[in-house]
TrEMBL record:
Catalyzes two sequential steps in the biosynthesis of coenzyme A. In the first step cysteine is conjugated to 4'-phosphopantothenate to form 4-phosphopantothenoylcysteine. In the second step the latter compound is decarboxylated to form 4'-phosphopantotheine. Catalyzes two steps in the biosynthesis of coenzyme A. In the first step cysteine is conjugated to 4'-phosphopantothenate to form 4-phosphopantothenoylcysteine, in the latter compound is decarboxylated to form 4'-phosphopantotheine. One of its GO terms (biological process) is coenzyme A biosynthetic process. In the N-terminal section; belongs to the HFCD (homo-oligomeric flavin containing Cys decarboxylase) superfamily. In the C-terminal section; belongs to the PPC synthetase family. This is Coenzyme A biosynthesis bifunctional protein CoaBC. InterPro entries: CoaB-like_sf, CoaBC, DNA/pantothenate-metab_flavo_C, Flavin_trans-like, Flavoprotein. Pathway: Cofactor biosynthesis; coenzyme A biosynthesis; CoA from (R)-pantothenate: step 2/5; Cofactor biosynthesis; coenzyme A biosynthesis; CoA from (R)-pantothenate: step 3/5. Keywords: Decarboxylase, Flavoprotein, FMN, Ligase, Lyase, Magnesium, Metal-binding, Multifunctional enzyme. One of its GO terms (molecular function) is metal ion binding. CTP binds at residues 291, 301, 317-320, 336, 350, 354. Residues 1-203 are annotated as: Phosphopantothenoylcysteine decarboxylase. It comes from Pseudoxanthomonas dokdonensis.
């Protein structure tokens, strides 16, 4: 099985893909293919702006259905076609969702085909924002997103990275594979029965991101972990049907769909949150937890008064080893090792010393990989084997890793 495809996970679901007007519309073409690969039936509706970037014919060829573009299509509306389409959908996905489209959805507007469909349906709604990072961060857009979330709308993305205008920041449309994996599996429209994933009924606990250890009210000790890998793992596990709890250090990432998130700052707080979330069937320790923390943080800002400064640090709790020592319902404990040298040797040493079931190791401090990158390469080790994962987006690696975890559970 490839990393992307979970054949049948969306089997029989009727998904109405509404395409907004932005340069990211080219990704929506691939999204149609990925949705169909996952077993969904797909129809497409386009805004006028979207048609400036891609023709309806392209979506028709990929979806296998005529594309709806206007409320004023006399043939389609002879029998109130937009109402029929709104009722046909099991889920509506808007990708890309522009700032303007998000604003009109929040206001309850019905001034074109797409907004009318969204107002006329009872199906759940997923929006996948894509826009300039300043537009995304604007208070008006954030207020609109907050309104939509309160109404139960699923929000996927946006991602942080290079934008079409040559700038960089949060505003990129999530990758099509990532969107598909975050869509709830739901029910098979043919049978009405749930389409269970391989982790259905399992509780998965994931820790992700860095921890910050306060030196004083101004400064802290931290690391460069972005949390991207852990968040991708949580999303992949939820997509496979697991009940997922994500304990997240201080990161600026959207909570994956269907995941319960607990935010923490320090190693001590992460330790407390992880053990509060037990018991679980699987624990995946993807967080980069600080090894040391100040014995006594300064009450006031430490002033620059000498040429050198000595810090009194003490060891933090070893969360991973303590979880592995539990005798509760845990069936698999997976750790991570970020190394700058002798990756295999250090990883296998950690696997044995902490008595883990599996450890995933990668090299950091290199170009095009490691903490802050969207891509990585890694190797998983267990007692009698190993598996290498070639460089790929972290969302892709997360799916491959979760497939391996399913295999190891059955071994």
């Amino acid at each position: 099985m490839t990393a992307a495809d979970q054949p049948g996970r969306l089997h029989g679901q009727r998904i109405l893909l509404c395409v907004g007007g932005g340069i990211a519309v080219y990704k929506s073409l691939d999204l149609v293919r990925r949705l169909r690969d996952a077993g969904a039936r797909v129809q497409v509706a386009m805004t006028a702006g979207a048609q400036q970037f891609v023709t309806p014919l392209s979506f028709q060829a990929l979806s296998g259905h005529p594309v709806r573009t206007s409320l004023w299509d006399s043939a389609a509306e002879a029998s109130m076609g937009h109402i029929e389409l709104a009722r046909w959908a099991d889920r509506i996905v808007i990708a890309p969702a522009t700032a303007d489209l998000l604003a009109r959805l929040a206001q309850g507007a019905a001034d074109d085909l797409v907004t009318t469909l969204c107002l006329a349906t009872t199906a759940p709604l997923t929006v996948c924002p894509a826009m300039n990072h300043h537009m995304w961060l604007h208070p008006a857009t954030q207020a609109n997103i907050a309104i939509l979330r309160e109404r139960g709308v699923q929000v996927i993305g946006p991602e942080d990275g290079p934008l079409a205008e040559g700038e960089s920041g949060p505003g990129r449309l999530s990758e099509p594979l990532d969107i598909v994996i975050q869509l709830p599996a739901g029910a098979d429209a043919d049978s009405g029965n749930p389409a269970p994933g391989p982790l259905q009924g399992k509780k998965v606990l994931v820790s992700a991101g860095p921890t910050y250890e306060d030196l004083d009210p101004v400064r802290f000790l931290g690391n460069r972990s972005s949390g991207k890998m852990g968040f991708a793992i949580a999303a992949a596990a939820a997509g496979m049907g697991a009940e997922v709890t994500l304990v997240a250090g201080p990161v600026h990432l959207a909570t994956p769909a269907g995941v319960q998130r607990v935010d923490v700052r320090s190693a001590a707080q992460m330790h407390q949150a992880v053990f509060a979330a037990l018991p679980a069937d699987i624990y995946i320790g993807a967080a980069a937890v600080a090894d040391y923390t100040p014995r006594q943080p300064a009450v006031n800002k430490i002033k620059k008064s000498s040429e050198s400064l000595a810090l009194d640090l003490m060891r933090t709790p070893d969360i991973l080893a303590e979880v592995a020592a539990q005798t509760q319902a845990l069936q698999l404990v997976v750790g991570f090792a970020a190394e700058t040298e002798n990756v295999a040797g250090y990883a296998r040493g950690k696997l044995e010393a902490k008595r883990l079931d599996m450890i995933v190791a990668n090299r950091v401090g290199i170009a095009d990989g490691g903490f802050e990158s969207d891509s990585n390469a890694m190797t998983a080790y267990w007692k009698d084997g190993e598996r290498a994962f070639a460089s790929a987006p972290k969302t892709e690696l997360a799916r491959q890793l979760m497939q391996l975890i399913v295999e190891r559970l059955q071994a």
